Amino acid sequence: IKAQVPTFESIARGISKGEYKKIIIMCGAGISVASGIPDFRSPKTGLYANLEKYNLPYPEAIFDISYFAEKPEPFFTLARELYPGNFEPTPVHHFFKLLEKKNVLKRVYTQNIDTLERCAGVSENKIVEAHGSFATASCQNCGEEYKAIDIKSTIMSGKIPYCKYCEKGIVKPDITFFGEQLAQKFWWHESDFPKADLLIVMGTSLQVEPFCDLIKNVPQNCHRLLINNVEVAVNRSSGYRKKTDMGFKFNEKSNYRDAKKIGDCQKSIKELVELIGWNKEFKKLMKK
Ligand code: OAD
């Protein structure tokens, strides 16, 4: 018997019937666009297309640790715009909380640094902020740790926060820059992903390694659902694996487990919730 290739609708039915009990979410900037935070790579509206004012040698320099050591100003100018506290979680973030309440959320792996998963009430032990977040910060010289609130007023007033202990180092929010180690919690994936029974990938271009590689780490029989406004594939710069080993297989005969919903993720999530039959609870959660 050939298993049915899952669809958005069949996955909704599965969630409704309690067939998925260990759902892993992998998400990125696209889920926070509705709250007013631009994503990175969307042409025209994405952050990387709008960095002219910072005079960067290349867009990613704003998150590059060696560039930061020389010139921290562009990052802090941006940090002022993106600082947590100014944005509200979106329906997608509330959906994560609903999955947790229903006891079917294994973990949310987010690349986002905006802390909106926390703001939606998702428990800290259910969230892996793979690229760190603004929630904490540390001195680049002595390592002294700070909370977001400790450096907020300095950043907001357009100044660069220096360590009050060693008085030398810049206090940098604990966001993982290019050239830095990923957050320790990222390694939870080694035990999480082999246990997943549904993977939902949402609002990410899957361009940044090693995060994007995780989509292959779920079991062979685990369904994978992409919710994004464009189709995405994992493009490995190193190229030692074939692209087809990594990406979704929507259009291939060999696909037996990948489904997609292309369009605005907020709209798709509302549709998913409706199909599952969780509308009432969802609305209640969003009102809180
Ligand atoms: P990207 O900007 O690369 O990708 C966002 C994806 O979301 C794109 O495919 C968009 O088309 C899609 N998108 C945008 N709005 C959407 C919407 N309303 N509904 C559905 N899809 C939407 O952002 P990430 O994949 O998160 O690193 O980027 C990964 C990492 O690259 C970031 O964590 C950041 C960056 O350099 C660091 O900050 C260290």
Automatic annotation (TrEMBL):
Record: residues binding Zn(2+): 139, 142, 163, 166
UniProt-annotated catalytic positions: 131 (proton acceptor)
Enzyme Commission identifier(s): 2.3.1.286
One Pfam family in the UniProt entry: SIR2
Top-rank taxon, per record: Eukaryota
Catalytic function, reaction form: N(6)-acetyl-L-lysyl-[protein] + NAD(+) + H2O = 2''-O-acetyl-ADP-D-ribose + nicotinamide + L-lysyl-[protein]
Residues engaged in binding NAD(+): 39-41, 111-114, 204-205, 265
Protein name per UniProt: NAD-dependent protein deacetylase
Source organism (scientific name): Anaeramoeba flamelloides
Top-level taxonomy: Eukaryota, Metamonada, Anaeramoebidae, Anaeramoeba
